[in-house]
């Protein structure tokens, strides 16, 4: 019996009906974006700029304020892949929100999550843009730390949530892209110039509230390149999990438990089957390669983390029950059967 080759190559529908509908919608919109921006593989720049303007407005008004949105943000990912200037403009838009104290903290936090995920995953963003954004982040972090020195510090992590979110974005990017950074011209000198040790050991203690997977991978990378030594801080944090008691602005005693940052990274792996061909060639998978340890460092690291499988895609792992399973924003209760 002959089988139609088109039927063989046709992607299977998603099992979850909502996911399947989303997949079909995404496929249609991807086709629309391409038809607007290209004429026989030639980029129509004027129309692309107009579409970018419209889509950034939609992004700011709808996507960015929506908590843990699924897949829709990849429409922006696809559009800005057409030209480096679009990606640069989009990153600048996000950074202006992060660094603007007049923007609500929840939007500043969401913006830096989008920045980190985009810079980690997008193959089309040049390394020079990555380094520029890392520089902006570290300068802002060092400035924030300096402003806290000598002042009465409120140690409630919720007060400094933007600071911790930027720190986590920085740690995530260095751990995720360390190979590209080191292999680039004078990359190790660049990383040394970020003064990561000062950030790790500052009194605000960002390693305490960052995701364990981010902290673990960052610690391994920075130890390998001798950029910072995180394990003593991690060990100290593990021993000190008692509630924090401090006085608020009105003088009342307040007790709070340490709060970890959320695990949402908007451009985690794209799971939709029909439309993923628009994204696959633009998308960087996590290769799972963490620099190997030697001697005492290896012993220290073994005490802090489980072994990470090299063939796992995702950087963020669920470390419960001594097993590592890929974390993805798409694997939510509503999408378990995708």
From TrEMBL:
GO terms for biological process: transcription initiation at RNA polymerase I promoter. Residues 295-308 have a biased composition (Basic and acidic residues). GO terms for molecular function: RNA polymerase I core binding; RNA polymerase I general transcription initiation factor activity. Residues 290-327 are annotated as: Disordered. Residues 318-327 have a biased composition (Polar residues). Belongs to the RRN3 family. It holds the Pfam family RRN3. One of its GO terms (cellular component) is nucleus. Transmembrane segments: none annotated. This is RNA polymerase I-specific transcription initiation factor RRN3.
